Amino acid sequence: MTLDAVDVAFTEAAVGAGIATILMLATLAITSARQKPSEKRALAPMLAAVATGLVLAYGLADLPPFADPEAPAHRHVAPRYLNESAKEIGIPNVVTSVLASYRGYDTLGEVTVIFTAGVGVLVLIGRTRHRRRENDDE
Amino acid sequence: MSLLSEIFAYFNYWVVVILIMLGMYVVMANPNLVKKVIGLNIFQTAVFIFYISMGEIEGGTAPILDDAFTRYANPLPHVLILTAIVVGVATTALALALAVRIYRAYESVEEDEIDAEDARAEVQE
Amino acid sequence: MIAQSLQVGAHLPALQVVVPLLAAPVCALIQRPRVAWATALAVSVLALLMSSALLERTLVAGPISYALGGWAAPWGIEYRVDTVNAFVLLIVSLISTLVLPFARDSVEQEVRADRIGLFYTAWMLCLTGLLGIAITGDAFNVFVFLEISSLSSYVLISLGSERRALVAAFRYLVMGTVGATFILIGVGLLYTMTGTLNMMDLAERIGAVEDTRAVKVAFVFLTVGIAIKMALFPLHAWLPNAYTYAPSAVTAFLAGSATKVAVYVWLRFFFTVFGADYAIESMSMMLLMLPLALSGIVIASLVAVFQNDAKRLLAYSSVAQIGYMALGIGLFSTTGLTAAIVHLFNHAIIKTVLFMALGCILLRTGSVRIASLAGIGRRMPWTMAAFVFGAMSLVGVPLTVGFISKWYLLLAALEFGWWPVAALVVATSLLAAVYCGRVVEAAYFRDPQPGSIQAHAREAPLTMLVPVWILIAANIYLGIDTDLTVDVARRAAVILIGAVP
Amino acid sequence: MRHHIIVRVSTRILVAFILLFALYVQFHGDFGPGGGFQAGVIFGAGCILYGLVFGVDALRVVIPDAIVRSIAALGVLLFAGVGVVAILAGGNFLDYSVLGQTPTAGQHLGIILIELGVGMTVASVVILLYYAFTNR
Asked: Which of A92, C22, C355, C363 shows the smallest number of beta carbons within 10 Å?
């Protein structure tokens, strides 16, 4: 079963190569912390997780079957992207057309999210211009 | 529709449900902050699978226009999930940065140890 | 020249969000604390002017639609401004504008100097996110801007001076991400069933599929996800620590804006997307929300009474106040909604001023534990006087805005003849008097330890006192002249419920 | 790894190809899969590979902290700036059609520019994360 989501696959691959490395480094930085077995609080989370799963399953079982071309998701907004984007935007990759133009504003938001994360990481653990002050929290 | 094809038609969705339960459980039950972040990632990945699944069309190809094909997968869910993946990565990076700082401040990333430490500081005040 | 100004007017909805968005990287490039602060303040003032212009236009000419990228909805992303969200835009930019002058000194004391440039970058991003959520007419776009505001608020909270701020930010991040992912699931389900993401388009198409289980589940996930973000009891666990350990200016800003925007998103989905009838009849929201709202009000107020830290006390009070808004919404009448929306505004200006007053004390003494507030009323008379006025408004003393909120809430409850609910509202107001009273009692009727910092504290600087007293003036003026807020809130309620009262 | 000559030489060659591939993905996203985000991550990953083999300080010499931070901010400014230019040219925010002689030419130009903005921010944030997480 394939999903024909080449752009998504590509992104996941790139993220795996680039970000996973950082994730690994971050984990290395705090690996001396060891896992202790702790069973006492497991019941309530279990119930919450199962409840969420059941509610979701209840709804998902009602969706149009997988890959059904008649599903409403494919009949209303999406056809315009596939049929008109060649004329309106003029590039063959429809995902790029939607991402960069039809819903370009979401992408601006997405870049802003990345920037926000960058700012946050810099504030938290970035190298700072002055050396650390006395009695600081670190 | 036979039972088997019924199960198969919704196979992706079952995976989504199981991953969501797994992710939520790890997020809530595991006291290790780094593992909580991993739980969040599982949770988010489940939603990515849900979105891509709903974009697929029987007999469609990747939505890159070419004269050889007439039927394409729905590009919109792909776009949405690209955004969501990016948001997920950004959240992970920030969460890990916080975990690193917490480790420097408490010398632990175990929730119960951190709480115990805070309780001790509270008594001293 | 006229053509020029008309053109700017036509792009106001986009500029409302884009100007702070542009200011964020500019602040990051500047890095110098005072310049970054001045930029943030200037942009905030500009945002306030734009939101007032937008509110005025929606009152005169009805909803404004703006097609981003020039692509008409539902193919492109639409910004849609009506009286409801114009009012929310005004609240958010007003709070940011009033807290920023106060923030300069407060932040310089609480945040390390080399982080201040990025602090204001995060502030601008948070403002961008909040305004973006409020203005958009696209369900997925809500998620994107929600994440901008969430990530930046985790950063802002983590900058508190104690290490517990880090843990508070982490826990908020975990809960916030679960909430946002729930919203993502809800939006995904709605898209699968209708094929659209535009809210107006969703509202039109949802009727045909509203009996399906998928739409019901979408409703549940959206409700729970947004409830986490607005800290509705019992999903409020992230809020008390986040508000207690965040820098004072951040607490004041978020308390006045972030939860309010989440309440707005709730309103938007309940009333515009799903429709009031669906929410009440199919999902029996009334039965679910009233107990949650009422128990949230009672329990959070009681917990507040027993707090030893004034910031945490006010944080629990905020959870209770969210309960009042949920109560107003849960009554599902024009009066109830009016009460909720009025309280949205009023609570923003009440809680912001209370947290700002605590920020002044924190600047001078370094602690807002109730025990260490002893005698502060004599050392910092203006600050504490402001706190007393704010507290009176929170309790709901007549001639303050707090009274107006409670009054409409009582009216809404009595419309249904629900005396016990009305009595509970009054009783919990007394609880508010008790917990605020603890702070006031310590400040005025106890003596400071001789030789302590408190005994020699100076009054806060004017840059902090002036915004505090502007808000107090607003609390009293809008408590007497109610036309402004109640009128707008009523019109907003009518738009949401879709009927003439 | 700093002393293994084979690793060092092959890394140099590999990094060159990775960066080249990143540029290909950046500017070819219109036709195949890819675009600014993927290109940015690949570019960042290439730089991280260099940093892993030659040391993070060697990478810092090539790409200093201050530059990385500025490019992250400039990428956002470029993207939003294209939107503002569209307003000045008489369209709505981010309406690229008004940027060129014909609407499709404008769309092309707009998409290339904003993808560049995305790539800049993503690549520099990836490098920035690497710098930050290797700080001790």
From this structure: A92
Question: Chain B partners of D31 at a C-beta cutoff of 8 Å?
Answer: 64
pLDDT tens figures, B13-60: 888 899 999 999 999 888 888 889 888 988 888 888 888 887 766 666
Range 213-242 of C in CB contact (< 8 A) with A: 213-214, 216-218, 220-221
What are chain B's partners, defined as 3 or more CB pairs within 8 angstroms? A, C, D
Window 117-136 of A, Cβ < 8 Å to B? 117, 120-121, 124-125
Residue C431 to residue C419: CA distance in whole angstroms: 19
Kindly list the domain boundaries of chain C, sorted by start residue. Answer: 294-501
State the CB neighbour count (10 A cutoff) for residue A32: 10
Radius of gyration of chain D (CA): 18
For residues C428 and C320, the answer to whether their CB atoms sit within 8 Å is yes
CA distance readout (Å), A23 to A114, C119, C296, C448, C476: 16, 25, 39, 50, 52
Residue C145's pLDDT band, with cuts at 50, 70 and 90, is very high
Structure tokens belonging to residue C449: 């330890």
The interface predicted TM-score of the complex, written ipTM, equals 0.94
> pLDDT digits over C161-204, tens only?
889 999 999 999 999 999 999 999 999 999 988 889 999 999 88
Separation in Å, CA C35 to CA A124, C112, C120, D62: 22, 16, 10, 30
How distant is the Cα of D56 from the closest Cα of chain B, in angstroms?
18
Establish if B109 touches chain C: CB-CB under 8 angstroms.
no
Put simply, the answer to whether B76 touches A98 (Cβ < 8 Å) is yes
Which positions in chain B touch D132 (Cβ < 8 Å)?
97
Given an 8 Å threshold on Cβ–Cβ distance, is C14 in contact with D92? yes
Q: How far apart are CA A30 and CA A65, in angstroms?
A: 45
Say whether C159 sits in a helix, a strand or coil.
coil
Residues in chain B with CB shorter than 8 Å from the CB of D40 are none
SS3 (DSSP) at C484 = helix
Q: Do residue A77 and residue C221 have CB atoms under 8 angstroms apart?
A: no
Residue ranges per structural domain of chain D: 5-134
Q: Which helix (H) or strand (E) holds C65?
A: strand C64-67
Torsion of CA B10, B13, B14, B17, to 10 degrees: -160
Which residues of chain A does B22 touch, with a Cβ-Cβ cutoff of 8 Å? 49
Q: What's the gap in Å between the CA of D36 and the closest CA on chain A?
A: 10
Mutate to test the interface with D, among A111, A127, A132, A138 (most CBs of D within 10 A): A111
Report the amino acid identity of residue C23.
Answer: A
Q: Which domains does chain B have, with CATH numbers?
A: 3-124 (1.10.287.3510)
Average pLDDT, chain B: 82
Task: Give the Å distances, CA to CA, from C476 to B95, C232, C355, C397.
Answer: 42, 28, 18, 10
